[in-house]
Amino acid sequence: MSGTRKVLVAEDSSVIQNLTKKILQFQNFEISAVKNGQQVLDKISKEDFDVILMDINMPVMDGMACAREIRSLSNPDKSQTPIIAISGNAKNYTMDDFKGAGFNDYLPKPLDFDKLVETVKRYSEHES
């Protein structure tokens, strides 16, 4: 098993961000957190992550636009990072919409934390 898996949490709600961080840290993930899509792009330009958890509705740049930006990056290590959408507003989107934007998977809010851990583990253990 390689070292600690790094997860980037992009979520503008501090409550959800903190809960997600605590749960994943308990599972031995290293967590970084940001509040909007532009911060995601800034962060991944400097660091590599195993998984990105991304809220859809964020200020500055939303999750859909950010996922498209990530998928268009020239560095394949970064452009192919698994991205999991998290949203309480998913009825506005279909799984095809999420896939079209470049998301690998989707978790509805309120988050089911068992499913969150299972999904993050599944994508972080997948070596491309």
From TrEMBL:
Record's protein name: Response regulator
Organism: Agaribacillus aureus
Keyword DNA-binding: no
Keywords noted in UniProt: Phosphoprotein, Two-component regulatory system
All copies of domain Response regulatory, residue ranges: 6-124
Residues recorded as bearing 4-aspartylphosphate in the entry: 55
PROSITE patterns, alphabetized: RESPONSE_REGULATORY (PS50110)
Nucleotidyltransferase found in the keyword field: no
Superkingdom of the organism of origin: Bacteria
InterPro entries given in the database record: CheY-like_superfamily, Sig_transdc_resp-reg_receiver
CDD domains per record: REC_hyHK_CKI1_RcsC-like (cd17546)
